[in-house]
Design brief:
With about 190 residues, this protein is mostly helical. It is built from six helices and two strands. Strands 1-2 form a two-stranded antiparallel sheet.
Protein backbone atom coordinates (compact mmCIF):
# COMPACT_ATOMS: atom_id res chain seq x y z
CA UNK A 1 0.00 0.00 0.00
CA UNK A 2 2.75 2.45 0.96
CA UNK A 3 4.70 1.73 -2.25
CA UNK A 4 1.55 2.43 -4.32
CA UNK A 5 1.14 5.81 -2.62
CA UNK A 6 4.83 6.54 -3.17
CA UNK A 7 4.50 5.63 -6.87
CA UNK A 8 1.49 7.93 -7.24
CA UNK A 9 3.44 10.74 -5.60
CA UNK A 10 6.32 10.16 -8.04
CA UNK A 11 3.85 10.15 -10.97
CA UNK A 12 2.40 13.47 -9.77
CA UNK A 13 5.90 14.88 -9.30
CA UNK A 14 6.84 14.00 -12.86
CA UNK A 15 3.62 15.51 -14.21
CA UNK A 16 4.67 18.77 -12.54
CA UNK A 17 8.27 18.47 -13.80
CA UNK A 18 7.13 17.78 -17.37
CA UNK A 19 4.80 20.79 -17.17
CA UNK A 20 7.64 23.00 -15.96
CA UNK A 21 9.85 21.57 -18.70
CA UNK A 22 7.24 22.52 -21.30
CA UNK A 23 7.27 26.11 -20.10
CA UNK A 24 11.07 26.43 -20.17
CA UNK A 25 11.79 27.40 -23.75
CA UNK A 26 15.46 27.59 -24.72
CA UNK A 27 15.69 30.09 -27.58
CA UNK A 28 18.05 28.42 -30.00
CA UNK A 29 18.16 30.02 -33.46
CA UNK A 30 15.94 28.33 -36.06
CA UNK A 31 14.47 25.70 -33.70
CA UNK A 32 13.85 26.64 -30.04
CA UNK A 33 13.21 23.70 -27.76
CA UNK A 34 11.83 22.92 -24.32
CA UNK A 35 12.94 20.66 -21.49
CA UNK A 36 9.95 18.30 -21.82
CA UNK A 37 12.11 15.52 -23.23
CA UNK A 38 14.47 15.71 -20.25
CA UNK A 39 11.65 15.07 -17.78
CA UNK A 40 9.76 12.51 -19.87
CA UNK A 41 12.99 10.56 -20.29
CA UNK A 42 13.76 10.82 -16.58
CA UNK A 43 10.22 9.61 -15.84
CA UNK A 44 10.96 6.39 -17.73
CA UNK A 45 14.35 5.94 -16.10
CA UNK A 46 13.32 6.77 -12.54
CA UNK A 47 9.78 5.35 -12.43
CA UNK A 48 10.23 2.48 -14.86
CA UNK A 49 8.18 1.73 -17.96
CA UNK A 50 4.71 1.53 -16.43
CA UNK A 51 4.71 4.46 -14.01
CA UNK A 52 6.95 6.54 -16.29
CA UNK A 53 4.53 6.01 -19.17
CA UNK A 54 1.53 6.68 -16.91
CA UNK A 55 3.03 9.98 -15.72
CA UNK A 56 3.44 11.19 -19.31
CA UNK A 57 -0.03 9.93 -20.31
CA UNK A 58 -1.57 11.79 -17.35
CA UNK A 59 0.29 14.93 -18.41
CA UNK A 60 -1.11 14.59 -21.95
CA UNK A 61 -4.66 13.96 -20.68
CA UNK A 62 -4.44 17.02 -18.42
CA UNK A 63 -3.41 19.12 -21.40
CA UNK A 64 -6.13 17.72 -23.65
CA UNK A 65 -8.88 18.45 -21.12
CA UNK A 66 -7.79 22.08 -21.08
CA UNK A 67 -5.28 22.48 -18.28
CA UNK A 68 -2.55 24.72 -19.77
CA UNK A 69 0.34 22.30 -19.25
CA UNK A 70 1.60 22.21 -22.84
CA UNK A 71 4.17 24.68 -24.14
CA UNK A 72 1.46 26.97 -25.55
CA UNK A 73 -1.57 26.10 -23.42
CA UNK A 74 -3.94 23.17 -23.50
CA UNK A 75 -7.17 21.89 -24.97
CA UNK A 76 -8.39 19.10 -27.21
CA UNK A 77 -7.47 21.13 -30.29
CA UNK A 78 -3.86 20.11 -29.70
CA UNK A 79 -4.69 16.77 -31.33
CA UNK A 80 -4.99 18.61 -34.66
CA UNK A 81 -1.67 20.42 -34.31
CA UNK A 82 1.16 18.94 -36.38
CA UNK A 83 3.44 18.69 -33.33
CA UNK A 84 1.02 16.61 -31.22
CA UNK A 85 2.77 13.44 -32.39
CA UNK A 86 5.80 14.44 -30.36
CA UNK A 87 3.65 14.66 -27.22
CA UNK A 88 2.24 11.19 -27.89
CA UNK A 89 5.78 10.05 -28.59
CA UNK A 90 6.88 11.24 -25.15
CA UNK A 91 4.63 8.62 -23.52
CA UNK A 92 5.86 5.80 -25.76
CA UNK A 93 9.44 7.03 -25.36
CA UNK A 94 9.20 7.07 -21.55
CA UNK A 95 7.82 3.52 -21.58
CA UNK A 96 10.57 2.24 -23.90
CA UNK A 97 13.30 4.06 -21.99
CA UNK A 98 12.19 2.47 -18.72
CA UNK A 99 11.83 -0.92 -20.37
CA UNK A 100 15.34 -0.89 -21.82
CA UNK A 101 16.89 0.40 -18.59
CA UNK A 102 15.36 -2.64 -16.89
CA UNK A 103 14.25 -3.56 -13.39
CA UNK A 104 17.66 -2.93 -11.83
CA UNK A 105 18.00 0.58 -13.26
CA UNK A 106 20.02 1.78 -10.28
CA UNK A 107 22.86 -0.58 -11.21
CA UNK A 108 22.77 0.13 -14.96
CA UNK A 109 25.85 1.40 -16.67
CA UNK A 110 25.85 4.93 -18.00
CA UNK A 111 26.00 3.55 -21.54
CA UNK A 112 22.90 1.41 -21.03
CA UNK A 113 21.00 4.40 -19.63
CA UNK A 114 22.16 6.50 -22.56
CA UNK A 115 21.16 3.79 -25.06
CA UNK A 116 17.72 3.60 -23.40
CA UNK A 117 17.40 7.38 -23.73
CA UNK A 118 18.36 7.32 -27.40
CA UNK A 119 15.87 4.51 -28.09
CA UNK A 120 13.15 6.59 -26.43
CA UNK A 121 14.24 9.63 -28.44
CA UNK A 122 13.99 7.61 -31.65
CA UNK A 123 10.39 6.68 -30.81
CA UNK A 124 9.54 10.31 -30.02
CA UNK A 125 10.91 11.46 -33.37
CA UNK A 126 9.35 8.64 -35.38
CA UNK A 127 5.91 9.33 -33.94
CA UNK A 128 6.40 13.09 -34.18
CA UNK A 129 7.54 13.09 -37.80
CA UNK A 130 4.85 10.69 -39.01
CA UNK A 131 2.11 12.60 -37.19
CA UNK A 132 3.42 15.94 -38.47
CA UNK A 133 3.33 14.65 -42.06
CA UNK A 134 -0.16 13.16 -41.66
CA UNK A 135 -1.68 16.34 -40.19
CA UNK A 136 0.05 18.64 -42.71
CA UNK A 137 -0.96 16.43 -45.63
CA UNK A 138 -4.47 15.26 -44.79
CA UNK A 139 -5.88 17.77 -42.27
CA UNK A 140 -4.22 21.07 -43.14
CA UNK A 141 -3.92 20.20 -46.82
CA UNK A 142 -0.42 21.61 -47.11
CA UNK A 143 1.84 18.63 -47.82
CA UNK A 144 5.49 18.88 -46.88
CA UNK A 145 8.23 17.22 -48.90
CA UNK A 146 10.39 14.48 -47.42
CA UNK A 147 13.59 16.59 -47.35
CA UNK A 148 11.85 19.53 -45.67
CA UNK A 149 10.14 17.15 -43.22
CA UNK A 150 13.43 15.59 -42.16
CA UNK A 151 15.17 18.97 -42.01
CA UNK A 152 12.58 20.80 -39.90
CA UNK A 153 11.25 17.91 -37.83
CA UNK A 154 14.53 16.11 -37.14
CA UNK A 155 17.85 17.64 -38.22
CA UNK A 156 17.27 21.10 -36.73
CA UNK A 157 15.64 19.80 -33.54
CA UNK A 158 17.62 16.70 -32.60
CA UNK A 159 20.96 18.23 -31.44
CA UNK A 160 19.38 19.81 -28.36
CA UNK A 161 17.48 16.62 -27.59
CA UNK A 162 20.67 14.57 -27.82
CA UNK A 163 22.15 16.86 -25.16
CA UNK A 164 19.02 16.32 -23.03
CA UNK A 165 19.43 12.53 -23.38
CA UNK A 166 23.00 12.79 -22.09
CA UNK A 167 21.91 15.03 -19.21
CA UNK A 168 19.09 12.59 -18.32
CA UNK A 169 21.56 9.68 -18.28
CA UNK A 170 23.93 11.62 -16.01
CA UNK A 171 21.15 12.69 -13.65
CA UNK A 172 19.60 9.23 -13.46
CA UNK A 173 22.98 7.60 -12.86
CA UNK A 174 23.29 9.85 -9.77
CA UNK A 175 19.61 9.75 -8.66
CA UNK A 176 18.72 6.07 -9.05
CA UNK A 177 21.11 4.69 -6.38
CA UNK A 178 19.98 7.41 -3.95
CA UNK A 179 16.30 6.61 -4.54
CA UNK A 180 16.98 2.90 -4.19
CA UNK A 181 18.88 3.43 -0.94
CA UNK A 182 16.07 5.56 0.48
CA UNK A 183 13.50 2.92 -0.42
CA UNK A 184 15.65 0.27 1.27
CA UNK A 185 16.08 2.37 4.42
CA UNK A 186 12.34 3.03 4.57
CA UNK A 187 11.49 -0.67 4.27
CA UNK A 188 14.07 -1.58 6.91
CA UNK A 189 12.57 0.98 9.30
CA UNK A 190 9.15 -0.68 8.96
CA UNK A 191 10.45 -4.06 10.17
Amino acid sequence: MKSNVRNLVYVALFIVLITIGAKVVIPIPVCPFTLQLLFTTLAGLVLGPVYGGISVLCYIVLGLIGVPVFATGGGFGYVLQPTFGYLAGFAAGAFLTGLIAGKNRESCSFLRLLAANFAGLLVVYLMGIVYFWLIKTFYIGNPIGFKALILYCFVLAVPGDIVLCVVAAILSKKLLPILKANDFIESEAQK
